[in-house]
Specification:
With about 500 residues, the chain is mainly α. It is about 70% helix and about 0% strand.
C-alpha cells in the first residue's frame, strides 16, 4: 500500500522518519471503541460458558449417583477428564493460534465447545459422558491462549489491565456463580427438583451457542466481525494485511482519520519471522526457557490449589448434609446457599484488582500477583486448619469467601504476568505451554483430595486431623512454594520497550 508522508506531530506517537508506524502505537492512536467491544463481548460469552462448564460437575454428585449409578469417585473422574482435556487443548490451541491466527482458532474452538457441550447433555451413560467431557475440555482449552493473546494485542495499554485481567476472571467467575445458582434448583429426589442434570448441562452450553451465532453474524456482516490480531498479521502476512486490518478497526471505532488507508507499518526483523516456525522449540532457548519453566511450575501449584478448592468445598458441604452425628445436620438449602455465597468471591476479587491496576499507577501486575498468593497461603491455612469444622461460625465463611476469591485471582492474574514475558510472535504458544501443563496437574486434584480425606479418616493417631482438613493445608503449602518461585526465579519485567522491537508499553 501507499505510505503516509511523515508528520512531525506523529513521530512521538510511533511514526518513524520513513512514515512507518509501529502496530502497538497504531492501536494506541485508534483507541478503545466498537471494534474492541466486539472482541470483548465475543470473548466474554465464551469465557462465561467456560466458567460454567468447568464447575458444573462439582454439583452433580448426588444427581448422577441416582440416575447413572455413579460413585463420587466416578464423578471425580468426570472433573479429571475435562481438566486433562483443557491441558491438551491449551497446547493445541496455542500452536494453532500462532500458526493459523487468533480469530480462526477461537471460532473453531467455540464451535466444538458448543457441539460437545450439547452432546454431554444427551449422554446415555457414564462412559459416553466421560468422553464428551474430555473432548469438551480440549475445545475449551484451545480457546484460552488465543483469547488472551487477542485481547492483549488489540486493547490499548490504558485499558489493558481492566480488560485483560478483570474481564476474563470476572466472566469466568460469573459463569461459576450462575452454575451455583442453577444448581440450587437440583435435588437428590428428582420428583422434587426444579431442574434435572441434563437441562443444566444444556444451559451451560448456551453461551457457546450464542458465540457460534455471533461468528455467523460476523461472516454475513463484515462490519460486525471481529478483527484478527494486527501483530499476528504483520509477522505472518506482512504490513499490507496488518495495515488493512488496523484500518478496519479504526473505521469500526469511528476514528478513520487516525489511521488513513494505506498507512505503512514497520515490519519485524527476518529472524523474528523465522522464529515463528519454531513454536515450542523457541521456549527451550535462552532467554525464554527460564520464564517458561518457572512459570509452568508456579502455575501448576496455583492450578492445583484453585481447582482443588473448587472440588473440595462442595464435597465438605455435602458431607455436612449427611452427617447424622451433628446435632443439627445441614439442609440441602443451607448447603446450596453457602456454595452460592462462596462462589461470589471471584467477581469482586477480579474487579478490585482491575480497578486498582487501572487507577493506581504505583501498583503493578506483579505486585497483585505476589500479594494475592501470599494472602491465599494464609487464608487457606486458617480456613482448613481450624474453621472448617465449625460451619456455624461466621468467620468460617468469611475466610472461605476470601480463600476462593484469592485462589481465583492468584491463578488467573499470574497467567497474564507470565504472558508478558514473551513476545507477540509466539505468545500464544508460550501461554499454551505455561497453562497446558498446570491443567494436567490440576486434573488429578479430585483423586488426590479424596485420597487425603481417606487417609485423614483412617489415621486417628494424629490429633490435628480431628480439627484440620489436610487438603487446605496442602493448598497453603503449595501457594507458599509458588510465591517463592515467582519472587525469586521469575524476575520483574521492567516497563519499557516491547520485546518485538516496538514502543508499545507492557501490561503494567
Amino acid at each position: 500500500g501507499m505510505s503516509v508522508e511523515p508528520d512531525p506531530s506523529r513521530r512521538e506517537a510511533g511514526m518513524g522518519t520513513n512514515g512507518a508506524m509501529n502496530v502497538g502505537d497504531a492501536i494506541e492512536r485508534v483507541g478503545l471503541g466498537f471494534g474492541q467491544y466486539l472482541i470483548i463481548f465475543g470473548s466474554a460469552i465464551s469465557l462465561l460458558g467456560e466458567g460454567m462448564q468447568l464447575v458444573v460437575m462439582f454439583y452433580l454428585n448426588d444427581t448422577l449417583n441416582g440416575e447413572l449409578g455413579t460413585s463420587d469417585l466416578k464423578v471425580g473422574w468426570l472433573d479429571t477428564a475435562i481438566l486433562v482435556g483443557l491441558g491438551i487443548g491449551c497446547f493445541a490451541g496455542g500452536s494453532c493460534a500462532d500458526a493459523f491466527g487468533r480469530k480462526g482458532t477461537l471460532q473453531v474452538a467455540n464451535l466444538f465447545s458448543a457441539m460437545l457441550g450439547v452432546a454431554s447433555a444427551f449422554a446415555p451413560n457414564w462412559v459416553i459422558l466421560l468422553i464428551c467431557r474430555f473432548s469438551l475440555g480440549i475445545a475449551l482449552g484451545a480457546f484460552i491462549p488465543g483469547c488472551v493473546s487477542l485481547l492483549m494485542e488489540t486493547i490499548p495499554s490504558a485499558h489493558r489491565s481492566l480488560v485483560g485481567i478483570a474481564l476474563p476472571i470476572a466472566l469466568g467467575a460469573s459463569g461459576k456463580i450462575l452454575v451455583a445458582l442453577l444448581a440450587d434448583l437440583l435435588h437428590e429426589d428428582p420428583s422434587q427438583a426444579y431442574l434435572d442434570w441434563r437441562t443444566l448441562l444444556f444451559v451451560c452450553s448456551v453461551p457457546d451457542l450464542v458465540g457460534v451465532v455471533l461468528d455467523i453474524i460476523g461472516m454475513l456482516f463484515p462490519s460486525l466481525s471481529t478483527i484478527e490480531s494486527p501483530h499476528w498479521l504483520l509477522i505472518h502476512h506482512g504490513s499490507v494485511e496488518a495495515s488493512d486490518e488496523l484500518r478496519r478497526l479504526a473505521e469500526q471505532n469511528g476514528k478513520g482519520s487516525e489511521f488513513p488507508k494505506g498507512t505503512a507499518l514497520s515490519t519485524p526483523e527476518k529472524h523474528e519471522k523465522e522464529e515463528t516456525e519454531l513454536h515450542y522449540l523457541a521456549l527451550l532457548r535462552s532467554p525464554w526457557a527460564s520464564p517458561a519453566f518457572t512459570g509452568a511450575i508456579a502455575q501448576s501449584l496455583l492450578a492445583f490449589t484453585y481447582f482443588g478448592f473448587l472440588f473440595a468445598i462442595p464435597m465438605h458441604l455435602t458431607s455436612w448434609v449427611h452427617d447424622e452425628s451433628r446435632a443439627e445436620p445441614w439442609t440441602e438449602q443451607e448447603r446450596d446457599t453457602a456454595l452460592v455465597v462462596i462462589s461470589l468471591a471471584e467477581l469482586p476479587a477480579a474487579l478490585v484488582a482491575g480497578l486498582v491496576l487501572t487507577h493506581v499507577s504505583e501498583v503493578k501486575v506483579r505486585d497483585v500477583v505476589i500479594w494475592s498468593i501470599a494472602l491465599l497461603a494464609v487464608t487457606s491455612f486458617i480456613f482448613g486448619g481450624s474453621l472448617l469444622h465449625i460451619p456455624e461460625h461466621p468467620m468460617t465463611w468469611i475466610f472461605g469467601f476470601l480463600t476462593r476469591g484469592l485462589a481465583s485471582l492468584a491463578f488467573e492474574i499470574s497467567m497474564v504476568h507470565i504472558a508478558e514475558e514473551f513476545p507477540h510472535r509466539f505468545r500464544a504458544t508460550a501461554l499454551s505451554a505455561v497453562e497446558g501443563f498446570p491443567r494436567f496437574v490440576a486434573a488429578f486434584s479430585p483423586e488426590i483430595i479424596l485420597s487425603l480425606q481417606r487417609y485423614a479418616s483412617v489415621d486417628t493417631s494424629t490429633a490435628w486431623f480431628q480439627v484440620a482438613e489436610p487438603e487446605f493445608i496442602v493448598f497453603s503449602v503449595l501457594a507458599s512454594i509458588a510465591l517463592v518461585i515467582i519472587v525469586v526465579l521469575l524476575p520483574a519485567q521492567e516497563k519499557g520497550l516491547d520485546q518485538d522491537g516496538g514502543t508499545e508499553p507492557l501490561l503494567d
